[in-house]
């Protein structure tokens, strides 16, 4: 009995020691399982990176990392029978999508995954181990890592960051920077808000005026009062992406295992398009691209076949560019008074037995969903696409609908009671949760501090467990109305993006805000080196 007790007590102490040690390994997002050992491995100029047909690009990327970060000149090889001092990649089809296993032993490092994406995520973890959790001897030219085994997989399959460039055009350099940081944090969806009332930012060859006119506004609302501000910049703002530039950015994202989901707003937030082609609007009047923020002066006349043909033409060019299965069509904040005051629209509604404006919106949205499906795509939209009443300015009677939204739709939940999410989930819809009070990056830190961003749970507390699998992930949104400069965008995004990355990846039981904040110090070093102007620690919590 005494021997059994000693063995048990020894094992207990060993596990306890390993647990404490694993807490000292700082990786963001936090892996699901970390098992540490006492021995170590040295990476030096003799270490080789072994690749095969699936991992040549990954090996080259890792080789470049060691050269740039530590000035270590590691060689790559396709020789598969090395015995010691190497890094290799293995494919195991039994692994789940995006999952990986990272093993650092005394004589080698091995990354195992189902596919290249899992291997890529394993490399991001290895980079964080090397940069922030290892001993580097600058003069003896070696990197010493503790023996460790990491078993890891994401909690959610949809881990999104959204950039709104309709309000302020940022350009390719900033987008690539964001993609780099997303990849490092294992985020996999870049939601690109390219059109809105205040600007159209994507070239559509069939309709050149969308960028010739719609990408330009003569001034911009500014000032500390924000939405109520009477101050104008008195300076023009313009910018858009050519289709060739879009292709370059898509390729850049693909290399980082990020899917770009474009958002083409319809039927609301369409003033910039209507300014380019007035016949698109319900009123038929000529208007300018707005110089104030907020909901625009007109919406698409969806009762007009010419307008719906226009939208399908635009979607055709968008689908030809973006390989994403999902196309986001917005659908939020449609002011129904435009349709209510149009005899043309009212006649169309009567002919199609549509009793309310919400009926018309769902009817139109379903026609777009059907068109996307015919092209092998899937529609996503903000939760107004279900006909829900989310806004004070809408008459409740206008938001009653008997129309059923296309079943394949993905609901992007941003506003409303959890009962609306329950309704969507219970009716079989997949949901991306982006509840604005927790995920809108344009909010000040006093309203959305880092701790609140980190505490967000995409699965609502009151949602019945049987619907939990309908929550496929989360998005965090950088709305652009009040971020005229790159630095202001950096300040809003960083460090909160790291919190959302961990929300999307790490299981609730593995999350720990104190540990996260310690890991954040490493990311701050990275951001400083990359000239990313993140918010300092004393600003990210309530004061």
TrEMBL record:
Q: Which reaction does it catalyse?
A: Hydrolysis of terminal non-reducing N-acetyl-D-hexosamine residues in N-acetyl-beta-D-hexosaminides
Beta-hexosaminidase bacterial type N-terminal domain location: 25-152
InterPro entries, per database record:
Beta_hexosaminidase_sua/sub, GH, Glyco_hydro_20_cat, Hex-like_dom2, HEX_bac_N
The GO biological-process annotations, alphabetized, read as: carbohydrate metabolic process; glycosaminoglycan metabolic process
Could you state one GO cellular component term attached to this entry?
membrane
- The active site consists of 333
Q: Where is the Glycoside hydrolase family 20 catalytic domain?
A: 156-507
Q: Which Pfam families match?
A: Glyco_hydro_20, Glyco_hydro_20b
Q: The organism sits in which domain of life?
A: Bacteria
Membership in a protein family: Belongs to the glycosyl hydrolase 20 family.
Family annotation (PANTHER family): BETA-HEXOSAMINIDASE, BETA-N-ACETYLHEXOSAMINIDASE
Protein's UniProt name: beta-N-acetylhexosaminidase
Upper classification of the source organism reads: Bacteria, Pseudomonadati, Bacteroidota, Flavobacteriia, Flavobacteriales
């Amino acid at each position: 009995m005494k021997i059994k007790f000693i063995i048990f007590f020894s094992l207990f102490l060993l596990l306890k020691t390993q647990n404490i040690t694993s807490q000292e390994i700082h990786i963001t997002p936090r892996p699901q399982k970390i098992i540490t050992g006492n021995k170590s491995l040295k990476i030096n100029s003799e270490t080789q990176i072994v690749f095969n047909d699936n991992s040549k690009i990954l090996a080259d990327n890792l080789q470049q990392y060691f050269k740039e970060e530590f000035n270590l000149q590691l060689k790559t090889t396709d020789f598969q029978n090395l015995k010691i001092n190497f890094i290799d990649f293995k494919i195991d089809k039994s692994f789940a999508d995006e999952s990986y296993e990272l093993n650092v032993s005394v004589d080698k490092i091995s990354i195992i995954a189902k596919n290249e994406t899992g291997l890529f995520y394993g490399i991001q973890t290895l980079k964080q181990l090397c940069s922030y959790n290892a001993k580097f001897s600058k003069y003896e030219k070696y990197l010493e890592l503790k023996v460790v085994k990491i078993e890891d997989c994401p909690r959610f399959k949809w881990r999104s960051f959204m950039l709104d460039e309709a309000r302020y055009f940022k350009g390719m350099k900033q987008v690539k920077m964001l993609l780099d940081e997303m990849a490092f944090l294992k985020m996999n969806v870049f939601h690109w808000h390219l059109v809105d009332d205040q600007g159209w930012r994507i070239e559509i060859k069939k309709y050149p005026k969308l960028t010739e006119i719609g990408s330009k506004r003569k001034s911009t609302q500014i000032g500390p009062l924000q939405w109520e501000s009477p101050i104008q910049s008195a300076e023009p703002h313009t910018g858009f992406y050519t289709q060739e530039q879009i292709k370059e950015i898509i390729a850049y994202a693909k290399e980082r295992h990020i899917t770009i989901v474009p958002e083409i707003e319809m039927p609301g937030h369409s003033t910039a398009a209507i300014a380019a082609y007035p016949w698109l609007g319900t009123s038929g009047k000529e208007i300018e691209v707005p110089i104030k923020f907020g909901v625009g002066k007109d919406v698409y006349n969806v009762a007009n076949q010419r307008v719906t043909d226009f939208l399908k033409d635009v979607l055709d060019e968008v689908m030809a560019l973006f390989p994403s299965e999902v196309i986001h069509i917005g659908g939020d904040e449609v002011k129904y008074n435009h349709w209510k005051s149009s005899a043309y629209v009212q006649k169309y509604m009567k002919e199609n037995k549509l009793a309310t404006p919400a009926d018309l919106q769902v009817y139109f949205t379903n026609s777009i969903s059907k068109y996307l499906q015919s092209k092998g795509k899937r529609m996503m939209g903000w939760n107004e696409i279900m006909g829900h009443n989310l806004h004070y300015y809408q008459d409740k009677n206008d938001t009653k609908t008997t129309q059923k939204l296309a079943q394949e739709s993905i609901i992007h939940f941003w506003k409303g009671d959890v009962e609306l999410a329950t309704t969507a989930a219970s009716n079989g819809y997949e949901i991306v949760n982006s509840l604005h009070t927790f995920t809108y990056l344009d909010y000040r830190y006093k309203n959305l501090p880092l701790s609140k961003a980190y505490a967000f749970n995409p699965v609502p507390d009151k949602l019945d467990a049987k619907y939990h699998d309908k929550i496929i992930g989360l998005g965090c949104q950088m709305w652009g109305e009040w971020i005229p400069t790159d630095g202001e965008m950096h300040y809003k995004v960083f460090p909160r993006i790291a919190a959302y990355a961990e929300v999307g990846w790490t299981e609730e039981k593995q999350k720990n805000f104190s540990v996260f904040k310690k890991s954040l110090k490493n990311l701050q070093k990275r951001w400083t080196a990359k000239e990313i102007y993140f918010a300092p620690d004393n600003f990210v919590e309530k004061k």
